[in-house]
Amino acid sequence: MPISPENRARYPKDWKAISHRIRFDRAEGRCECEGECGIDHGDRCAAEHGKPNPMTGSNVVLTTAHLDHTPENCADTNLKAMCQRCHLRLDAGHHAMNARATRFRKAGQSDLFTEAAA
Ligand SMILES: [Zn+2]
Ligand SMILES: [Zn+2]
Fold this sequence. Notes:
Blueprint (H helix, E strand, L loop, with lengths): L4 H4 L6 H12 L36 E4 L12 E4 L1 H24 L4 H6 L1
Antiparallel strand pairs: 1-2
């Protein structure tokens, strides 16, 4: 997931090193998702960095996800190595909520329930 300009400044200077440590030292190049993304993997996502994703067949690029979507929070417990599929799913839920909140603010309260049902 590309880091947007307004978010880039929120990442710590040593983010690259942190991200590398999480993905390759702790996770040993494997997706650490255990269903946080909303996909039911059974136990743990089987994707491995540089190998074809068992579900999609496309090459896995491991990323580091913030479980609480807060780039400043780089505690190990808030970080998970995730394949792009899991990371996108994790962020999609978050983005949908943000978009809904933005539309809600723009539209005013009357749209709350139609938005929530969408
Ligand atoms: Zn995964
Ligand atoms: Zn997952």
